[in-house]
Design brief:
The chain has one domain (4-214): 3-Layer(aba) Sandwich (Rossmann fold), CATH 3.40.50. The protein is built from seven helices and five strands. It has helices spanning 14-25, 43-54, 97-112, 134-146, 149-153, 168-177, 202-214; strands at 4-9, 28-36, 59-64, 116-118, 158-160. The chain has a five-stranded parallel beta sheet with strand order 3-2-1-4-5, with helices on both faces. The longest helix has 16 residues, at 97-112. The chain is globular and about 50 Å long. The chain starts with a strand and ends in a 9-residue tail after the last helix. 40% of the residues are buried.
């Protein structure tokens, strides 16, 4: 039997949990990848590890990249996390984060002989990040098959973003259909050590609105 391997970026949040459930439903053996990049808290990485176990990933790897050493974001420096919506690209944008994470996933996919990479990028209910747009994904897909042995000599590597055009309500409904335990996920930008959410940051507000719009009881654990 030909086993379909996929590398799946797992952040510990609701989007990547639903993305993994979708990949599994499509018959992929998921190799979960998290990146410890110097984010404000480790609760999301703890959640990612737990979700990888609960969702029966083949393995879970955490790679360390110190983006805090260059800063430039409220998530990787002492800049305050805003608690109200702002115009333009917000200070919670982490420079080049998705590019770096997908590059690591690309390298691991080559090593594993996997032809597929899944990520939970979403372009509808997102915070204005330039690296969550379909244009970015298309550009990275092109790069993946120009810059790799798999792309030049092999079958190529396909990038999947199944949530790209979904609203947060759509994602919540899809997760419920697939049996995702959202209470185990952590989306908050400034969660405490136990993973309890602040309920005020942009990530918390988008998440809460998604559950409300979907008519689903919010399972988030708040401070």
């Amino acid at each position: 039997m030909n086993i379909k391997k996929a590398v799946l970026l797992v952040s510990g949040g609701m989007d990547s949990a639903v993305t993994m459930a979708i990949a599994k439903e499509q018959g992929f053996l998921c190799h979960a990848l998290s990146v410890s990049y110097g984010q404000r808290h480790s609760a999301e990485l703890d959640a990612a590890n737990e979700l990888a176990t609960i969702q029966s990933a083949a393995e879970h790897k955490t790679v360390v990249v110190d983006l805090r050493s260059i800063g430039g974001s409220a998530l990787t420096s002492d800049i305050a996390v805003p608690e109200s919506a702002s115009e333009g690209i917000p200070v919670t944008y982490v420079p080049a984060r998705n590019t770096i994470m997908l590059s690591i996933a690309l390298g691991w996919a080559e090593v594993l002989g996997a032809n597929d990479i899944f990520c939970g990028i979403n372009a509808v209910d997102y915070s204005g990040y330039p690296d969550c747009r379909p244009e970015f994904l298309a550009a990275f897909q092109n790069l993946a098959n120009l810059a790799t042995k798999a792309g030049v000599e092999g079958a190529g590597i396909r990038l999947h973003a199944p949530l790209i055009s979904m609203s947060k309500a759509d994602i919540a409904r899809e997760g419920i259909r697939l049996g995702v335990d959202f209470s185990r996920t952590v989306s908050c930008y400034q969660a405490d050590d136990k993973g309890l959410a602040c309920g005020r940051c942009d990530a918390c507000r988008l998440r809460a609105a998604g559950f409300e719009d979907a008519g689903i009881t919010d399972p988030t654990r708040y401070v």
